[in-house]
Design goal:
By secondary structure, the chain is mostly helical. The chain has one domain: Arp2/3 complex 21 kDa subunit ARPC3 (Orthogonal Bundle), CATH 1.10.1760. About 80% of the residues lie in helices and about 5% in strands. The chain has 7 helices and 2 strands; from the N terminus they run H-E-E-H-H-H-H-H-H. It has a two-stranded antiparallel sheet with strand order 1-2. Helix 2 packs antiparallel against helix 4 and helix 2 crosses helix 7. The model has no long low-confidence stretch (mean pLDDT about 85).
């Protein structure tokens, strides 16, 4: 880990983003609207990857995944996740914590690789990759735990495939909303923070 990462400014910003991702994950990560959910907890992960690099994105992403795992699986706030944790504890744990951790890591890496050419493009890519990885790994987990999901829904293996078409359709809509939210709000917040830093300078 680069020693520059441990500057007072970076540590303070990391603390703010960790607190923000915890609050959003606990209270505003799944706001229902018209049968789908609005997820705002990916924004701090994107900001961490962009502003603090690979390590920042990884740490905030891990924090988000850990809070999600504890609340939905361990504490059982989401019945389906709690059931899958009982039947597939290893896979469910890796999926819950791994998807946002990897998303933050890749976001920071892509921003670093692209920012020298175009900061706007780097911020956009660093934002959009978060929901892509988050949803992609989640869908992979559902495939790996397909039989357990079918058992939770009390369906036979034959009819489960029909349900999965609907499940993936709903996931796709959530995915589109996550991309829209993350790629709209992250660049705006990033621009505001840059303006504040310029004024302070």
């Amino acid at each position: 880990m680069n020693s520059k990462f441990f500057s007072a400014k970076n540590i303070a910003l990391l603390g703010v983003l960790i607190a923000l991702v915890i609050v959003l994950q606990l209270f505003a990560s799944a706001i229902p609207m018209f049968g789908v959910t609005l997820n705002f907890s990916l924004i701090p992960i994107a900001l961490a990857g962009i502003l603090l690099g690979v390590w920042g994105g990884t740490i905030v992403g891990f924090t988000c995944g850990l809070v999600l795992f504890i609340t939905t699986a361990v504490l059982g706030q989401e019945p389906s996740t709690a059931f899958l944790f009982q039947t597939n504890p290893v896979i469910l744990t890796v999926i819950c914590i791994g998807k946002t951790t990897l998303a933050g890591l890749v976001s920071g890496l892509l921003y670093k690789l692209i920012s020298n050419r175009s900061e706007f493009f780097a911020v956009t890519v660093g934002s959009i990759i978060i929901p892509i990885i988050n949803t992609g790994i989640y869908m992979l987990g559902m495939v790996l735990m397909k039989q357990s999901v079918a058992d939770f829904l009390s369906l036979s293996s034959a009819s489960a495939s029909v349900v999965f078409v609907g499940v993936f359709a709903l996931i796709w809509l959530n995915f589109v909303l996550e991309i829209a939210i993350t790629t709209i709000f992250t660049p705006l917040i990033h621009r505001v923070l840059k303006a504040i830093n310029r004024n302070r300078g």
